[in-house]
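I'll show one example:
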Amino acid sequence: VHNKNPVFQEQLKKAAALLNLKEHVCGLDQEKTEVLYSAADLEGHCGTDNMLYLVDFSRSFPPEVPNPKFKNSYLYRLLRPELVRTYWDALCPDAYSSFLKHDPQKKFHNQQVEDATLYLRDVIIPKIAPELANSIELVIARGHSIKFSIAKEIHDSGINCRYLGLLRTHIDPVQS
């Protein structure tokens, strides 16, 4: 893990504040740790034009609690930006990864992500499901004359499409 450019560090600190991401200590070797405001594998480069470039945004947001059914799920089953931005605590994008090996707050970072995941599953999804069903009924009643996207609706609520099945379980069968 490298973090030698103070301009990058300051810009990433500002971006982290906007995205509700928290600073954390990263590094696989105790002697080579760095405080970061982004996922450890985000790369910053200074181009030959002296412009600053970032690449590898694949893990920009924190993971959900890893699911043992899915190998290395902390790498790709991420919380939606809409949820992270509106969650009451800043969350660590490197939670559950080996990059936090030497962070004294590792357990706390992971616990916060677990709490956010449970909040999504136990509070947001049950709340949004009947609202989504009502919206779908309205679209059907109006003969599809309203532009409507289920994906957009659930994404705006911080829910990934992989939760459609769980959403469905929270809709009254009489209603649907």
User: Anything to note?
Assistant: Residues 106-141 form the longest helix (36 residues). The chain has a mean pLDDT of 89.
